[in-house]
Amino acid sequence: MGEFTRNCRVCKEPMKSSPFIMCSACLKDSEQILNYIRKHPLSSLEDISQSTNVCISKIEMMVSIGFNRKDEYEPEMN
Ligand SMILES: [Zn+2]
DSSP characters for the chain? Predict the structure, then answer.
């Protein structure tokens, strides 16, 4: 196990070593998205994007990697 540079899985920016797979900025966005989804479980990606000011492609990326935490609510995307 050598040292290796990690890149944020969402925005691809290099990030400091962390237990998370996304950088702090993306973590913050993911928190907002998760909060929104909890309150509005049936919202579309467009709704989420407009309400959180996070671009849709970034939200899709977060959804595809499971929001970094397996124990969190995982939205079902249609
Ligand atoms: Zn990031």
Answer: -----EE-TTT--EE-S-SSSS-HHHHHHHHHHHHHHHH-TT--HHHHHHHHT--HHHHHHHHHTGGG-TTS--PPP-
pTM > 0.70:
yes
CA distance 59 to 56: 5
Q: How far is the CA of 26 from the centre of ligand 1 (A)?
A: 4
pLDDT tens for residues 19-68? 888 899 999 999 999 999 999 999 999 999 999 999 999 999 998 887 75
Is residue 49 a contact partner of residue 59, using CB atoms and an 8 Å limit? Answer: yes
Q: 76 CA to middle of ligand 1, Å?
A: 22
β-bridge partners, 14: 7
Ligand 1 geometric centre to CA of 30 (Å): 10
